[in-house]
Write a structure and sequence with these properties.
With 545 residues, this protein is α/β, with parallel strands linked by helices. The chain contains 21 helices and 15 strands. The structure holds 6-O-phosphono-alpha-D-glucopyranose (G6P).
Length: 545
């Protein structure tokens, strides 16, 4: 593999001065450097990848043994080696067949749980399962990380399909989050979902207890309006949620990959079980494509190779995800966990230091909003940020089709502008038209120059439906997998979140004043002292309770 990486480095040097736009002298470029999965188009022609580079990138995937690793994942091998676990979120959306883990077919139990979720969702939506003050009007999902971002992102994404109770999401341990959410709700008609794979996450357990107290103040049996989604059934029982309202899953469903199973219950309640099935079937469609499409027509493989070219070969340290789709506003946050928790690693599977940078920083906001905020840097800043645009060919508001046309025009224009840029001569003409002359014209012109040659990709999907959302999410999941395999890292553990948690646990009693906090560093001690000064001041009575 070293040889291929080095050939890619050489390739990067060779094309460094070549503008991306020059590649379009080939009239077949857009067709050759794009691929389809059904009616979804992934266009990466506005990158500096040419046929020779693509070949090298494909070699990289082959040399990493991608095909075998992919099969290992789909068939239940324990590829999450540091935790000794299989990685089987794909089983949650598999249309059929059997998947063996430790010699046992896991599919019957998955199907049984999905059927229980369906029955429960139908009862809530139909009013047969009611709150103590009538039919459930509101659902509060309490969870964090993978137990929040997936369902929160998907519920917002699929707003046009909502015909169930309103869904709210509480994640932050900051009391403001739970307080602001619950104060708008009626406990007698609210269903609380406690979503936590481990059922030990301090934020979630703290918020769940607060919600239970809130409920207890108004209804006779607060536990009756609680549901748990977890792989730790004993702990859910200890919390007081009866087994009938616990939807379990196995430890081979990673938190950030868990929206497809019980963690997706809020989504199922919002859009109904049939549309939830469509979401699953979208994921399964992308799985089948990933497993069978040849690499050069394989969307997850190509998305990954483009990512590797930009981050690991060209050294761009971040990438922006820019959905021109307001309902995908939470997609960047969702992808931050998916990509950065999966591939933000500093050690290879073998326990050595990676030779290349690993996962880049992922960030973004929906267009067109971002255009009026950070696109200045994208166009003229001194660092190159590869951009990933997403846009639907059609919106959901036929009477607002003119809005959608403007949205599309902006998405396409931004990606073209990033590539094209504006030359000094063009800038001079603009400055002259603005009335500048002489030295001032020259100075003004330089501020109006766009270097251009900034790479971007475009994912166009027909319309944001449950099925299409399933395909998009699975596309990104597999992209992360491919990048992880090629980088030789474990994309499925997250040891990097442990230390902060441990220190927070140790600091809590120090802040409460029950532990002197011996051994704290000087900065932490000074910060604590500053906070303590406020402790003694009188405070306005809290209004939450
Ligand atoms: O679902 P839970 O067990 O509550 O975990 C919630 C989240 O917390 C952890 O810190 C992990 O970093 C995440 O991967 C996980 O999704």
């Amino acid at each position: 593999m070293d040889r291929i990486w080095m050939a890619l480095d050489a390739r990067a040097r060779a094309v460094a001065e070549r503008p991306i736009s020059a590649l379009f002298e080939d009239p077949g470029r857009a067709a050759a450097f794009s691929a389809r999965e059904g009616d979804m188009l992934f266009d990466y022609s506005k990158t500096n990848i040419d046929a020779e580079t693509l070949e090298l990138l494909l070699n990289l995937a082959e040399a990493a043994g991608l095909a075998a690793c992919r099969e290992a994942m789909f068939t239940g091998a324990k590829i999450n080696e540091t935790e000794g676990r299989a990685v089987l979120h794909t089983a949650l959306r598999a249309p059929g067949g059997s998947v063996q883990v430790d010699g046992r077919d896991v599919m019957p139990e998955l199907r049984a749980t999905l059927a229980r979720m369906r029955t429960f969702a139908e009862m809530v939506r139909g009013g047969q399962f009611a709150g103590q003050g009538g039919a459930i009007t509101d659902v509060v999902n309490i969870g964090i990380g993978g137990s929040d971002l997936g369902p929160a992102m998907a519920v917002q994404a699929l707003a046009p399909f909502h015909d169930g109770p309103r869904c709210h999401f509480v994640s932050n341990v900051d009391g403001a989050h739970v307080a602001d959410t619950l104060k708008r709700l009626n406990p007698e008609t609210t269903l609380v979902i406690v979503a936590s794979k481990t059922f030990t996450t301090i934020e979630t357990m703290t918020n769940a207890e607060t919600a239970r107290d809130w409920m207890a103040a108004r209804v006779a049996d607060p536990a009756a309006q609680f549901v748990a989604l977890s792989s730790a059934q004993e702990r859910t029982q200890a919390f007081g949620i009866p087994a009938g309202r616990v939807f379990g899953f196995e430890d081979w469903v990673g938190g950030r990959y868990s929206v497809w199973g019980p963690i997706g219950l809020s989504l199922m309640l919002a859009i109904g079980p049939d549309r939830f099935d469509d979401f699953l079937s979208g994921g399964a469609v992308m799985d089948a494509h990933f497993r069978s499409a040849p690499p050069r027509g394989n969307l997850p493989v190509l998305l990954a190779l483009v990512g590797l070219w930009h981050a690991q070969v060209l050294g761009h340290p971040t990438r922006a995800v820019l959905p021109y789709d307001q309902r995908l506003a939470r997609l960047p946050a969702y992808l931050q966990q998916l990509e950065m928790e999966s591939n933000g690693k500093g050690v290879t599977m073998q326990g050595t230091r990676p030779l290349r940078p690993t996962g880049p920083v992922v960030w973004g906001e929906p267009g067109t909003n971002g255009q009026h905020a950070f696109y200045q840097l994208l166009h003229q800043g001194t660092q190159v940020v590869p951009c990933e645009f997403l846009v639907a060919a059609r919106g959901h508001e036929p009477d607002l089709a003119h809005h959608h046309r403007l949205l599309l025009a902006n998405a396409l224009a931004q990606s073209a502008a990033l590539m094209r840029g504006r030359s000094l001569d063009e800038a001079r003409a603009i400055a002259a038209r603005a009335g500048h002359a002489g030295d001032e014209l020259e100075r003004q012109a330089r501020h109006r120059v766009f270097a251009g040659n900034r790479p971007s990709t475009m994912l166009i999907y027909p319309q944001l439906t449950p099925q299409v959302l399933g395909r998009i999410v699975a596309l990104y999941e597999h992209r992360v997998f491919v990048e992880g395999v090629i980088l030789g890292i474990n994309s499925f553990d997250q040891w990097g979140v442990e230390l902060g948690k441990e220190l927070a646990t140790a600091l809590a009693p120090v802040i409460a004043g029950t532990d002197p906090g011996a051994g704290l560093d000087g900065s932490t001690r000074a910060l604590l002292q500053f906070v303590a000064e406020f402790e003694s001041r009188p405070q306005e009575e809290g209004r939450f309770r």
